[in-house]
Amino acid sequence: MADLFSVTAPLLLSEADGRQSLMAECFRHPGGLLYFELYWHLQRPASRGVHVVQGEVRGEGPWRIGAAVVRVLGCRGTDPELAAAWSEWQTLVNSAAGAYPAREAIENLARDSGAWL
Q: What is the helix (H) or strand (E) element at residue 18, kind and residue range?
């Protein structure tokens, strides 16, 4: 598979405690991985929706970061609820009501949060 940071498909983070998060954005971070959760841009401050997963990024898909696993979100038959959540997210960010930030603003927040770009 591809390098984690070049994948354009939706990505799912599964943590050791069973929590799962869809990643709206992901970046390299000196501690491992920095990701933005869905709807991060609607939080105040937006940085509340930005998280770091500590550990070395390993693998070619699925990827492991510490005790967490990142994989491409499965088709609707595999992860129906998560696929529906992703679809709703995409509908919002592609609408005027979503007012999704420009790429430059996203990258600035990632840098401010310690990401390597």
A: none
Q: Note whether residue 117 is domain-resident.
A: no
**pLDDT for position 75:** 59
Query: Per residue in 13-24, is it b (16+ CB within 10 Å) or e — as a string?
Result: beeeeeeebbbb
Range of the structural domain that residue 58 is part of? 4-112
d(CA 117, CA 96): 28
Both tokens of residue 49? 């929706």
User: How many other C-beta atoms lie within 10 A of the C-beta of residue 111?
Assistant: 13
Strand-by-strand arrangement of the 68-72 sheet: 50-54, 32-37, 20-29, 11-14, 68-72, 63-65, 57-58
Using one digit for the tens of pLDDT, what is the confidence trace for 77-98? 678 889 999 999 999 999 877 7
What's the CA gap between 56 and 79, in Å, rounded?
26
Q: Which residues of the chain have pLDDT under 70?
A: 1, 75-77
